[in-house]
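Narrative of accomplishments. A recurring question from our advisory board has been how the design workflow behaves on a single, concrete structure rather than in aggregate. To address it, we present the structure tokens for one chain from the evaluation set, followed by the sequence designed for it. No filtering or post-editing was applied between the two.
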């Protein structure tokens, strides 16, 4: 252990990237950075981190922020449940912990939206709590280091990794060990072509000694994404249009989008919004754009119908629960990636018309 400790510490001290959340003692900033970095690469996450702490500089300001503002700041990062959960977590921290993150692993874990990884990462970086933080990078390093055959990412392999790393972290400064493992996964023990010659764990690594880097980690078979067909309506009544806030579960909950319906399939000969209009003849189809959008668990085939009509020609109840806005106000609302594709296509059509 003494040798591996020395090598890992030396390696980290020499090679760690300089990142703003590594130089701060502000527990809130450390927490924000950890949430942003889940499912997000450092280079992509950095501008979001700066924007977030500028717009919501304290836990109190986040707890009191309107959800739309937080989602707007988060727009483009994806996995929006992270942002929604952070608001709830900030509110709980204010209500139960006097606006400060508690310096206790179990208390951190009891806050809604803070899971095992975040509690261990924040706990070790901010408070020196000796708990291994296990994210995707750390799972990969551990599975190769220990030569684990079991598929990673399952509760039982996570439990196994936790036992192995808990034994080791106790010999280190917890913050340094967790940071070094994450950094190693991000920069050296990469998914493909790991840089074993530069790795401080090489002397003890099972995958290296048995040439198993390309087969480890063993990954559980992913489920095939589900296919969904959706029709979206970009309604033009003069300079007005309508949007709605998605209120059902899923990654886009709380974001705004054009009114939409789920279809069994798209049919070229049928306008699925026909019955939105009192007299179809008075509604003109201006454009019809097709999109394919890939989410982790879903492939969405979306068709955007741009239809122009007078407001008096729209069946009233179709719009009752929706929000009427100036079309050029759309950018003020938090929208998802597919909506960004729609607005990009609409803009380029308008540009072509000039
Ligand atoms: S020696 Fe290679 S496979 Fe093993 S932990 Fe280091 S980079 Fe990963």
């Amino acid at each position: 252990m003494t040798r591996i400790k020395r090598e890992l510490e030396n390696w980290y001290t020499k090679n760690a990237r300089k990142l703003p959340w590594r130089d701060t003692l502000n527990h809130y900033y450390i927490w924000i950075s950890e949430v942003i970095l889940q499912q997000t690469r450092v280079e992509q996450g950095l501008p979001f981190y700066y924007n977030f702490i500028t717009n919501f500089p304290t836990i109190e300001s986040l707890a009191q922020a309107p959800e739309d503002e937080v989602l707007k700041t988060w727009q483009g990062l994806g996995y929006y449940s992270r942002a929604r959960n952070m608001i709830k977590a900030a509110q709980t921290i204010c209500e139960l912990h006097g606006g400060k993150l508690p310096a206790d692993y179990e208390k951190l874990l009891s806050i809604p939206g803070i899971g095992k990884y975040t509690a261990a990462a924040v706990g070790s970086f901010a408070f020196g709590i000796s708990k291994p933080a296990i994210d995707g990078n750390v799972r990969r390093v551990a599975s190769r280091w220990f030569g684990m055959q079991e598929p990673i990412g399952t509760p039982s392999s996570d439990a196994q990794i936790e036992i192995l790393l808990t034994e080791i972290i106790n010999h280190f400064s917890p913050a340094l060990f967790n940071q070094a493992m994450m950094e190693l996964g991000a920069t050296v023990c990469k998914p493909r072509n790991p840089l074993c010659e530069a790795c401080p764990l090489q002397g003890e690594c099972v995958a290296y000694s048995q040439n198993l880097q390309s087969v480890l980690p063993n990954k559980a078979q992913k489920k095939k994404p589900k296919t969904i067909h959706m029709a979206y309506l970009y309604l033009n009544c003069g300079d007005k249009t309508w949007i709605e806030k998605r209120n059902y579960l899923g990654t886009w909950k709380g974001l705004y989008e054009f009114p939409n319906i789920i279809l069994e399939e798209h049919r070229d000969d049928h306008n699925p919004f026909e019955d939105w209009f009192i007299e179809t003849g008075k509604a003109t189809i201006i454009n019809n754009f097709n999109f394919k959008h890939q989410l982790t668990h879903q492939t969405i085939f979306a068709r955007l119908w741009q239809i122009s009509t007078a407001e008096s020609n729209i069946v009233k109840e179709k719009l009752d629960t929706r929000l009427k806005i100036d079309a050029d106000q759309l950018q003020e609302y938090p929208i998802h990636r597919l909506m960004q594709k729609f607005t990009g296509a609409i803009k380029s059509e308008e540009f072509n018309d000039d």
